[in-house]
Amino acid sequence: MKSALLKAIGKGRRIAIVTYSLQPKIEKLIKSILYLILKQYDKEYLHDSIYSVLFESIMNCVKANAKRVFFEERKLNIRSIEDYNTGIRIFKEEIGSQRLRELCEKGRQKEIHIKILYTHTQSGLKIEIFNSAEILKQEEHRIRTKLSKGQKYQNLFDFYNDNSDPTEGEGLGLVLSLLMLKAEGVDTSNFRIGSKNGITKTRIEIPFTDEYMSEREQYKLELSRER
User: Fold this and answer.
1) With 80 as the cut, is the pLDDT of residue 217 above it?
2) SS3 (DSSP) at 3
3) CB–CB of 126/204 below 8 Å?
4) What is the CATH number of the domain that holds 205?
5) Are 193 and 178 in contact (CB under 8 A)?
6) Mutual orientation of helices 47-73 and 172-183 as an angle, nearest 10°?
């Protein structure tokens, strides 16, 4: 397995993993792929920080998928604000690692999955996480608000004091991800979460050189050429 990965990475190929939950075996594989890619470009020192961001992003997908199965079991309408608030409260009270695995396994039967895609070159690394469970509008709004606010802070303590959200966590994981990227000199605009055509996508981009052009920058360039 490792030799095959090394060969693929050495040829600059994209690496993809599809999973339904974050079992130890899968977590080890995700971590190893990231390390081998970074090692290919002599960027191993970035591993711990990037993996923390990646892990947080994948766990958010796992919880989102488990949440949808949970709501179905409880016969709650996840798109109803009243049902959503009721369901989230119960979900947070009941959820644990074992229950999370059970719900994700039921989600597997419904083909609710997560795809992790690594794209890498000499100039940078892009990790995309595609979740087959579409993010809800209220969730997307909450995430965008957290990310927007989080960019203004330099530490979690100040953020927590100013922004507590009793409905669904305090968003500390998202803000911690921003702070870790900042610490590595990565522009926080390179960490994006959004939903389109029924798929939720998280994108983490790590430039290795000044030549790296982010997906956002490429899009802006294409728009300018069309004008």
Assistant:
1) yes
2) helix
3) yes
4) 3.30.565.10
5) no
6) 160
Total domains in the chain come to: 1
b/e string for 167-176 if b means 16 or more Cβ within 10 A? ebbebbbbbb
What does each C-alpha distance from 64 to 47, 69, 159 come to in angstroms? 25, 9, 23
The residue behind tokens 């199965």 is 69
C-alpha dihedral sign at 202, 134, 27, 159? positive
User: Residues in the chain, how many?
Assistant: 227
Q: What is the DSSP letter of 194?
A: E
**Domain assignment of residue 119, given as a range:** 2-226
Task: From 120, 104, 108, select the one nearest 33 (Cα to Cα).
Answer: 120
pLDDT band at 86 (very low <50, low <70, confident <90, very high): very high
- 147-202: per-residue pLDDT in tens? 887 777 776 677 667 665 544 455 678 888 888 888 888 988 899 998 888 899 99
